Automatic annotation (TrEMBL), chain A:
InterPro entries: DNA_primase_C, DNA_primase_lsu_euk, DNA_primase_lsu_euk/arc. DNA primase is the polymerase that synthesizes small RNA primers for the Okazaki fragments made during discontinuous DNA replication. The keyword Ribosomal protein does not apply. Binds 1 [4Fe-4S] cluster. Belongs to the eukaryotic-type primase large subunit family. Its cofactor is [4Fe-4S] cluster. CDD domains: PriL_PriS_Eukaryotic. It comes from Hibiscus sabdariffa (roselle). Keywords: 4Fe-4S, DNA replication, DNA-binding, Iron, Iron-sulfur, Membrane, Metal-binding, Primosome, Transmembrane, Transmembrane helix. Residues 298-465 form the DNA primase large subunit C-terminal domain. The keyword NAD does not apply. This is DNA primase large subunit. Gene3D superfamilies: 1.20.930.80.
UniProtKB/TrEMBL annotation, chain B:
It comes from the Eukaryota. The lineage of its organism: Eukaryota, Viridiplantae, Streptophyta, Embryophyta, Tracheophyta. InterPro entries: DNA_primase_S (IPR002755), DNA_primase_ssu_euk/arc (IPR014052). Transmembrane segments: none annotated. This is DNA primase. It comes from Hibiscus sabdariffa (roselle). Keywords: DNA replication, DNA-directed RNA polymerase, Metal-binding, Nucleotidyltransferase, Primosome, Transcription, Transferase. NCBIfam families: primase_sml (TIGR00335). Pfam families: DNA_primase_S. Its EC number is 2.7.7.-. Belongs to the eukaryotic-type primase small subunit family. SUPFAM superfamilies: Prim-pol domain.
Length: 504, 435
């Protein structure tokens, strides 16, 4: 990177030390076994806190405070170098844990990138510049002459975001647009002939993109090596001593020093660290029990969350749904326990007024079978979680997505009233929606409709369904119990054969 | 196109399969340039063409994916043999798609797309809520200009903002347009970068469930939006769309526009005025234009304090005219898109290129159809050179345009790219060998 101001690369006296590690490579460190786990758990608390905050739709200022608090509570150490060690060690341990599947990698990448982004913002501007040069980003500061020629456009961009162009010494960087996808997507930069003009305060985005891209590749590499490690470890037979020597150097060294026993010691920790964090994905059909086609219509009224109710109503009304809606509803029904044959019958029947049976078989049946893992590469697709649904982008003619997010206030109110939510409760729900707490809004709806509290909160439409059914069934059994009792009382009073044993 | 004509089109395809197939190879010039590399240059990648995915939709809606070919002759033969109703082009993968199963074992997907043109798909059915002349798959000369506008806005941005040069616009055969950006830089974009470009172009959000479909926050528009508005959208809306679609002439229609005004009192003021003047006014001017001027003067007058109102005029124009892209098509490298010069199975029309510099003159109702071409070819008699067969037909112009404006410059630029990277490699190895 070429920067206009002078920049000390390295000098023994005044080295600009960046306090943010980039996790490029791990230094050789000895870790005690307890610390191995403790450090990782502490960092995991931070990452989980971040995940929680994002899920609740916290605004950037709130996230900033949240992350600062989380870091202070879990990662601080009175000695700076101890803190740095913990930072690095915990990151690399979690890398081992989270490199193993695509889903784990995605989550870890997302949280670590968010963490990095906010920590970067806390840094001083010299420290930030030092970090930028470490990334060797291919961009140049805009010369004065060029700045004059594009000043108007740069000002326009700034004003379009409600900001003003900074004072005369504003530094802008010229970068190929590919380097700053976030800024391009949000139209937050002026782009000309393939170059984006990035303001100093937007540079965070540049750096974060680099960090993310590096970590993404590193995770995949780690995964390949871990697979190799376990194979070698099984071969190694060694009687070793109790204290673990964990070499967090490049994994090749790791391979040669991890002994059989340590593998036993580490494996359970590594397992436990990650499995507790992913909620059930509702992909096992047997967990839920079967639902038959005729039941669907009834339970849709009582136990479907609003997003699925809406899709269900629309498909019955319009006799059609676009692709996004078919996926969201179709996978949900699979998770609910609808078997493939019943699913095919359902969609075929609902589409029948608009789509002939032959056309249905040609154009839609294949995709339904695909969703159930009976075609193509046989992936058994999992029903969408709230997070996924909330972040979808329904367009013209679509009905999928999260109504709490994607509906206008009027339409949402009307839908809630149709669900039977009292007007007081509707106000509470709308309040949550205005503050962008869509899942909390859904939870409140659940509570209003079922008349009981839902402590865990709603994270997944199938979870809503299961919880609802549980309440319905206990209501049913409570009702039956009452009925039985009253029958027994009645028969006792009349001294006749208990009616209930005949028809219950 | 009536169903009759469409059906005859189909029959002809089956009976005169060979002739149809002869017409097709010229359309695959896009791939010739890949073949060029295969033999002609020491630094070329011989496997490139073989790693490109094609998919065919055959008669009876049989769909086959992951087709690949090692040479253009193989491709040609397969097309002649199978007579697909539709041919889609996919990405270039890391390995030959036909061998993908051998590689999927790795756990991490070693079978993955490595290059793919940046593509866009614009379909006029996405505009059904703002056009009254047609619905669904129908298109006429009143509403087709919406596509023309979309081409102008996107094409300008792709060239001026993103710096792309090798852009091909293609008529989709029935009701929309496709765009293929073939620069090397574009082919190597990641999914994330493609999504970013698609989002840069995205202004229209929402559907019948949400309210506001266009929201233009901020006191001023981003230069891209401002340029699109002043150079293309405003003029088109006021001069063409407004009067042709009678957007303000009756209550049902003007309500839709009044709904977009965030201030209810302003809306009702206008509503009152328009309800009174139901009869044609004294002036000869089109009622839509008169009312539009009234709306603008009310909203843009100095009296309006709230910013939201002053931006409202632009929001109305954008919501009717701004391009509506299918985001999913552009975001993923593995998305398949219909090949240029295909014949649309329902209309029989050929998917011809559209010149963005002359897109105002493009008329979808006069695009050559398969039946028409076959007639022309039969009349022409057999010719010696298969390449020139199409010259005398109504497709000749399109093919010529395709070759001269798009294919040749692209070929040249690819050659240059290969040569310069070859020279760079030679230089590098020289340097390492020199000591």
């Amino acid at each position: 990177m070429e920067v206009v101001q002078s920049h000390r690369k390295s000098s023994s006296n005044n080295v600009i030390v960046s306090t943010l590690p980039l996790y490029r490579s791990a230094p050789p460190l000895e870790v005690r076994l307890e610390d191995f786990e403790l450090f990782a758990m502490d960092r995991l608390r931070v990452l989980k806190g971040i995940s929680d905050g994002l899920g609740r739709g916290k605004k950037p200022e709130e996230m900033e405070k949240l992350i600062a608090d989380l870091w202070k509570a879990n990662m601080r150490h009175p000695q700076a170098n101890e803190e740095a060690n913990k930072d690095i060690i915990s990151h690399f341990v979690l890398r081992l844990v989270y490199c193993r599947t695509e889903e784990l990698r995605k989550w870890f990448l997302s949280m670590e990138t968010t963490l990095f982004r906010y920590r970067f913002r806390f840094q001083s501007s010299e420290a930030q510049r030092a970090l930028m040069s470490e990334f060797k980003l291919p961009y140049k500061a805009v010369s004065n002459a060029e700045f004059e020629s594009v000043k108007d456009k740069l000002g326009q961009v700034a004003r379009s975001m409600g900001q003003t162009l900074a004072a005369a010494d504003a530094i802008f960087y010229k970068v190929p647009f590919e380097e700053v996808p976030e800024l391009v997507a949000g139209r937050r930069v002026f782009i000309h002939k393939g170059h984006a003009y990035v303001a100093m305060n937007q540079v965070v985005s540049l750096v974060v993109t680099q960090f993310r891209s590096y970590l993404s590749k590193a995770l995949i590499l780690t995964n390949r090596r871990v697979v190799g490690i376990l194979a070698i470890v099984i071969i190694l037979v060694d009687i070793s001593f109790l204290v673990l020597r964990g070499y967090l150097t490049n994994p090749r060294k790791w391979t040669s020093t991890v002994r059989e026993q340590e593998k036993d010691r580490l494996a359970p920790i590594v397992e436990a660290l990650c499995t507790s964090y992913l909620g059930p994905d509702y992909s096992q059909e047997n967990e839920v029990g079967e639902i038959s086609l005729k039941d669907i219509y009834q339970i849709a009224k009582t136990s479907f969350p609003l997003c699925m109710r809406h899709l269900f109503e629309k498909v019955r009304e319009d006799h059609h749904l676009k692709h996004g809606g078919r996926m969201q509803l179709g996978l949900f029904l699979k998770g609910v326990g609808l078997k493939l044959d019943d699913a095919l019958a359902f969609w075929k029947a609902e589409f029948a007024p608009k789509v002939s049976a032959e056309r249905f078989d040609k154009e839609y049946a294949y995709n339904i079978r695909h969703n159930y893992g009976r075609e193509g590469k046989r992936t058994d697709y999992t029903p969408y979680s709230c997070q996924k649904i909330i972040s979808s982008t329904p367009g013209v003619g679509d009905h999928h997505g999260c109504p709490y997010r994607h509906f206008s206030e009027e339409n949402l109110r009307a839908a809630l009233v149709r669900m039977g939510v009292s007007s007081r409760a509707v106000e509470d729900v709308m309040d949550k929606v205005r503050n962008r707490h869509y899942q909390l809004a859904c939870t409140l709806t659940f509570e209003a409709v079922h008349g009981s509290s839902c402590d865990a909160g709603i994270n997944h439409p199938n979870q809503y369904f299961i919880d609802s059914q549980r309440i319905m069934q206990s209501k049913d059994s409570a009702y039956l119990l009452e009925l039985k009792k009253s029958c027994q009382v009645f028969s006792f009073a009349l001294d006749e054969e208990p009616l209930c044993s005949v028809w219950l | 196109m009536t169903t009759e004509e469409a059906e005859t089109g189909r029959d002809d395809m089956v009976i005169d399969g060979a002739e149809q197939a002869n017409a097709v190879p010229d359309g695959f010039d896009a791939n010739y340039l890949r073949i060029y590399y295969d033999g002609k240059h020491p630094a070329c990648d011989r496997s490139y063409f073989g790693r490109r995915e094609f998919s065919f939709t055959l008669e009876n809606d049989i769909y086959i994916r992951f087709q690949s070919f090692n040479s253009v002759t193989e491709l040609e033969n397969s097309i002649k043999e199978k007579c697909p109703f539709k041919i889609d082009i996919g990405p270039v993968y890391s390995v030959d798609p036909a061998k993908r199963h051998a590689y999927a074992q790795g756990g991490d997907n070693v079978f993955t797309p490595v290059e793919r043109e940046l593509v866009f798909d614009i379909d006029i059915t996405d505009y059904d809520d703002v056009r009254y002349c047609c619905t669904g798959a129908d298109v006429c000369l009143e509403c087709w200009p919406l596509m023309t506008i979309a081409i102008k806005v996107i094409d300008t941005a792709l060239r001026d903002d993103f710096g792309f040069n090798h852009i091909l616009w293609v008529y989709s055969g029935r009701r929309g347009v496709h765009c293929w950006v073939c620069d090397g830089k574009a082919r190597r974009l990641t999914n994330e970068q493609r999504a970013a470009i698609a989002d840069y172009f995205r202004v229209y959000k929402g559907n019948e469930n949400s309210h506001k479909k266009i929201s233009l926050p901020g006191p001023v528009l981003h230069p891209f939006l401002a340029r699109s508005y002043t150079e293309v959208l405003k003029g088109f809306f006021e001069a063409k769309l407004l009067p042709n679609q009678n957007l303000l002439s009756c209550q049902e229609r003007y309500e839709k526009i009044l709904e977009m005004i965030p201030d209810a009192s302003v809306a009702s003021e206008l509503r009152g005025r328009w309800q009174e003047n139901k009869r044609a006014s004294m002036s000869k001017d089109d009622i839509n234009l008169v009312r539009w001027e009234q709306l603008k003067s009310v909203l843009q007058s100095g009296k309006q304090k709230t910013q939201g109102l002053r931006r409202c005029v632009e929001e109305v124009v954008f919501s009717f005219t701004y391009p509506r892209l299918d985001m999913e098509v552009s975001k993923h490298m593995n998305h398949l898109l219909k090949a240029p010069f295909c014949v649309h199975p329902k209309t029989g029309r050929v998917c011809v290129p559209i010149d963005p510099n002359n897109c105002d003159e493009f008329d979808p109702t006069t695009v050559p159809t398969l039946t028409q071409l076959l007639e022309e070819l039969n009349r022409g008699g057999l010719r010696q050179d298969a390449e020139d067969e199409l010259d005398g037909t109504s497709l000749g112009e399109s093919v010529k345009f395709f070759r001269t404006s798009f294919l040749q410059p692209l070929l040249k630029s690819c050659k240059e790219e290969i040569e310069s990277s070859y020279i760079a490699k030679l230089q590098q190895s020289k340097n390492t060998l020199s000591w």
